[in-house]
Structure formats: structure tokens, C-alpha cells
Amino acid sequence: THFGFETVPEQSKEKLVGNVFSNVAKKYDIMNDAMSGGIHRLWKDHFIRKMAPLPGTKLLDVAGGTGDIAERFLNFTSQKYNDTSSSVHLVDINPDMLNEGKSRFSGSSWEKNDQINFSLGNAEDLSFIPDNSYDVYTIAFGIRNCTHIDRVVKEAHRVLKKGGCFMCLEFSKVNNPIISEIYDIFSFKLIPEIGQLLANDRESYKYLVESIRKFPDQESFANIIREAGFFVSNPGYENLSFGVASIHIGYKL
Ligand code: SAM
User: Among residues 172, 125, 121, which one has the least CA distance to residue 152?
Assistant: First the structure.
């Protein structure tokens, strides 16, 4: 099998993920563009348009990293409604990624208005966040790195208010046989090479590809969200770029 990390024991996965993101933190944004040809930007824009946050929305952005989702969210509410009452709480497990996020917002009006806050924390255990406290929970390209995705989704359910919305943007299963062949070559051969070339780090990018392949497909993930107590419509997800990525949505009723 080419899934070299499949035998990694559970307790060391967090350490591995930690190393991966510390290694890539500085180059994270450039690498995203290089690997996806910029398409991750379109996916993230679409994700925020789909959320369509109203003024005053309290967002919890988990595995928020360098702040791509947080910034788009604040841009949306600022530009559409001239709103200064919406806010984002960005949580990430990795201090290096969190620092990249902090520096992105430093000096911004959002920071001055206290519309953005940061916490170091694990998506599987948000015990520092009270029950029923956020309108929207987002996790973008973060959940596949977590060891227990069921715990992550249950924590999301706990911290959301009644009527609150869980939104996940994640790599998913390609649903077209031709695209799937191309995608395999691209991800197993090219991505590790680009990682080596641009970041001198083949292994981290091999890990990223493998983590994508191991993540549950669209239907299975929708069921995990249902099992955590969310209402998920049918199918409850939207495929982006033939399922290279997908958006899952669940409501806390
Ligand atoms: N959401 C950002 C985006 O879309 O650009 C960052 C995505 S980045 C691929 C994945 C992030 O998940 C990293 O910043 C990593 O530190 C974080 N992460 C991994 N495991 C985590 C966990 N258990 N809890 C919280 N964050 C985690």
C-alpha cells in the first residue's frame, strides 16, 4: 500500500500532525495556492457565501490556522452590512499556525473592535468554551487531521446555540472516474514533489495526501454528523470540483 502512515499508532498521530503544521506554518498560504492552483480560494469564498452570515453572528472557527475562513467571514459581514458586531473566535492546536493567524489580523480594525480572538486548543476537547454559545461553527481542512472525528463533531454540537449551524469544508471523495485518475497521479506523485521543491519537505505533504485518502466519504461523514445529534438534510453536503472537496452542513435543533 502507498498509505505509508496507516500503521501510525493513534497517540502519535497528534504529534505527527503537530510536526507537519509547524514545518509548513510559514509557507502554508503559498503552498495552498501552489497545490490547488488557487482553487482553495474559490472553495473558501463559496463556503462563506453559503453561510451568508447576518450581522452579529458569533463564529467559532476551529482548526482556523492562518485565518483564511475568519478573514473571509469578517470581510463578508463588513462589506455586505457594514457590520462591526460579528465576531470570530479562532481555535487551533498548533501555536505556529495560530501565530501566523494572529499576525495577519494585527493592526486591523477587526482586532481593534475585538471582533477576532484566538485560543490554542484541541477540536476534540473545547472544554474552555461554554455550551450553547456560538451561532456558527466552522472547520475547514482541519477535521481530517483529528484523531477522533466523532468527538470533534460532538464538541461542535455542544458549543453551538440551538438553531446554530455546523459547517465543514474538507477534502472528500472524487465522484468522476476520469478526474479520479488524474487526481491520483497529481496527489501521489506531484504533491510530494511540489512539497519537496517549495518547502524542502516531502514527508509532510505525503502525510497530507494520505490523510485525505483516509477521511470518510461524503455519505459516511454525513452520518457521523447525524450521529452527533445534528439535523442533516439529504444528502446534507455539496461537492466542489467533482468531490475533490465538499461542504457538509448540520443544524442543532
Ligand atoms: N482552516 C484553515 C484553512 O482552511 O486555511 C487551516 C487549515 S490547515 C490545513 C489545518 C489546521 O488544523 C492546522 O492549522 C492545524 O494546526 C489544525 N489542527 C490539526 N489538528 C487539530 C486539532 N485536533 N484541533 C485543532 N486544530 C487542529
Answer: 125
